[in-house]
Amino acid sequence: MPAPKVFIDTNILLYLLSTDTNKADRAETIVRGGGLISVQVLNEMANVARRKLAMSWIEINEVLALIRSLCPAEPLTIETHDRGRLVAERYGLSVYDAMIVAAALLGGCETLYSEDMQDGLVIDHQLSICNPFAT
Predict the structure, then answer these.
(1) How many Å apart are CA 5 and CA 130, to the nearest integer?
(2) Rounded Cα distance, 109 and 6, in Å
(3) Residue 105 and residue 95: Cα distance in Å, rounded?
(4) In this predicted model, what pLDDT tens digit does every residue of 8-67 receive, in sequence order?
(5) Surface-to-core class of residue 117, CB atoms within 10 Å of its CB (0-12 exposed, 13-18 middle, 19+ buried)
(6) Is domain 6-130 classified as CATH 3.40.50.1010?
């Protein structure tokens, strides 16, 4: 039986760039275990790396290339948008968080690693939100 599919939210990937070694190590373990991301995650990574971390475009491109080599990306589609709106309405998530959830659902994932969403929340009897840093 194949391992359950996981989706990795942007905030987990950003810890790969963190000076917090415990969180950086945990994020690296998650990424090495494999997981799906979305184009939205790549966009958010680029935005935070540029605006908050003041990384150069060369550095950003290197980080994104590495992430893309390890994590397949679910595309943003009208189906993602429609599913995300339903998730936002049903579960009270922000539109952007709901789009992450929708991409995970459409990708057939069972676990969504995120530090920002409600740990333990189960979406549509399929997807469990897991904060890998929760104690």
Answers:
(1) 13
(2) 5
(3) 15
(4) 999 999 999 999 999 999 999 999 999 999 999 999 999 999 999 999 999 999 999 999
(5) buried
(6) yes
